[in-house]
């Protein structure tokens, strides 16, 4: 790991208190970035910020952030700028899932998932881009927006219809944002994991048993590894952070509108 690869990058991460968001925050800071950890769980975000600051290299702050509200996104962007002087990168990682079979979806399930996974991403992209445009273009490198997608935008799954829909939306935001923000020297890319062992997937594993789609906890992992993955294991946040840091770094300057799959080969099928 290059401790200076992300030196000078000021990065806002949503859903940063745990899972992939936390792993990215630690990895970015270890490579010299300053990170603003946005999350509803302020205590967990502050604990992570303390840990990052104790490790040295990049700095971290924590903000309580409701990603589904424009005001929450604007405040997190403002906090990043106040702490670090500017914002160079936005990582829109916040997400959730609650499985339902197609005919069991109701408005509450739809609104909850779409608000956090898709509406929040749009708001975060827009508010972060607004600040980047106000700062004016950087001399040598573009600003960067990074969207956390999912295998669900390529593999429709009957038990998580709303989640799939939300992640198709993430893909569209990545493509449309890349076109709409190019004139401002802002690139928009993303990455799409498959099965990552995080609190989100651990809860999903339990929920799939509750709705009767799986018979036991752990079966979803086992079935996907056996039937879908060319790399015969599930992934962990450490499998993801390298791609995220590449997208945040100057190495990805000539990329925009791309969604990189980190899925163990699931999309080959």
Describe this structure in words.
This protein has 269 residues and is α/β, with parallel strands linked by helices. Helix content is 46%, strand content 14%. A seven-stranded parallel sheet has the order 3-2-1-4-5-6-7, with helices on both faces.
The main sheet orders its strands as 3-2-1-4-5-6-7
Instruction: Sketch the major β-sheet.
Output: 7 strands, parallel
Structural class estimated from helices and strands: alpha/beta
Give the strand tally: 7
What is the mean predicted local confidence, pLDDT?
A: 95
Strand percentage, roughly? 5-15%
Number of helices: 8
State the order of secondary-structure elements, H for helix, E for strand. Answer: EHEHEHEHEHEHHHE
Distance between the termini: 33 Å
Cα-atom radius of gyration: 18 Å
Shape: globular
**Uncertain runs:** none
Helical content, roughly?
Answer: 40-55%
Summarize the structure.
It is built from 8 helices and 7 strands. The chain is of the alpha/beta class and 269 residues long.
From the structure above, extract its key features:
single chain; alpha/beta; 8 helices
Helix and strand arrangement:
Elements (H helix, E strand, L loop, with lengths): L9 E5 L4 H12 L3 E6 L2 H14 L4 E5 L5 H15 L4 E4 L14 H29 L7 E6 L12 H21 L4 E8 L5 H12 L8 H9 L9 H12 L10 E4 L7
Parallel strand pairs: 1-2, 1-4, 2-3, 4-5, 5-6, 6-7
Helix pairs in contact: 1-2, 1-8, 3-4, 4-5
